[in-house]
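Go through the following before class.
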Amino acid sequence: MKEKIKEFRLNITIPAIFTIAIGVLLLLFPAESLATISKVIACIIVLSGVFIVINQIYERGFNGLGVAVGVILAIIGVWLFNDSGKIVNIIPIAIGVILVIHGVQDLALAIEAAKAHGQNAWFAFVLAIFNIFLGVLCIGASFQIVNLATRLIGAMMIWDGITDFGLVHSVRKATGPVVDGTITHEEDI
């Protein structure tokens, strides 16, 4: 059980670092961050189209329909690269989904803390529910003023990363005396 909790904490701590970094960039440089993210997404779409074309020509023995799909995908990617505003409206929705997923992970950590009878486990539940709320809010407000929404998303991501660190610390503290699913006390040793 201790290994499971240790692995679970690691799976939350590493993304929390990236979440805070992206949140800071979105908060400080909203327009530039969105433009960069949009261009990266467009490049991925272009590369996917090119990969499909190459795959359909060399590995499948020239599949005309597959090549056409790849070319269309590459053209859409180039169009989105040149008009990255189309992608900008999707980004807040994607980030909102990430926040909801992290909130659900936080909820799982809160349950672990409650099972381990951790102090203030209720507070972990409140934080997890608040993170889910922020994700839903981010999804719902995605088509409003993008610059303001981006700054809010940045602040939300920073909050999400910080609360992930706090919850990991709380669970580590609560499960510290747990060894292989049993609670040990000094008088038992």
Notes: DSSP finds seven helices and two strands in the chain. The mean pLDDT is 78.
